[in-house]
Design goal:
Low-confidence stretches: 38-47
Largest sheet: 7 strands, mixed
Structural class: mainly beta
Number of domains: 2
Number of strands: 9
Number of helices: 1
């Protein structure tokens, strides 16, 4: 028999969010929220049909490099699966179209225009 530790339990806010998502009557792979069985999952579509555009970053992801170039200024930067806003994890240089991250990525980095 396995037990769920107190740290693994959902908070009341998380339970309310899941309940709210499960009450939505949407489905299909192109919807913002996709209902799959009894649970709902966020399905954010990056591309022209969605509300977000993904920007690839140019630079070496090696755990030490913190400077990355983009084709335009992102609204958010996703670094190692965490989302950062400008001046809260990265700063922008207009002249060089570069973002300097507070932390160097070890896995991945890309920008999002919202």
């Amino acid at each position: 028999m396995s037990f769920i530790s107190k740290a693994d339990q959902l908070t009341s806010s998380e339970i309310d969010l899941v309940s709210g998502l499960n009450s939505l009557a949407v489905s299909g792979a192109t919807e913002a929220i996709q209902k799959t069985g009894i649970n709902s999952f966020a399905n954010i579509n990056f591309g022209s049909s969605g509300g977000f555009t993904e920007l690839p970053a140019t630079g070496t992801v090696d755990g030490s490099n913190t400077v990355f170039t983009f084709t335009e200024k992102p609204t958010y930067i996703v670094l190692d699966h965490a989302v950062y806003k400008e001046n809260m994890g990265w700063t922008w240089s207009v002249g060089t179209l570069t973002a300097t991250m507070s932390l160097p990525p070890t896995d991945d980095i890309y920008g999002i225009i919202a």
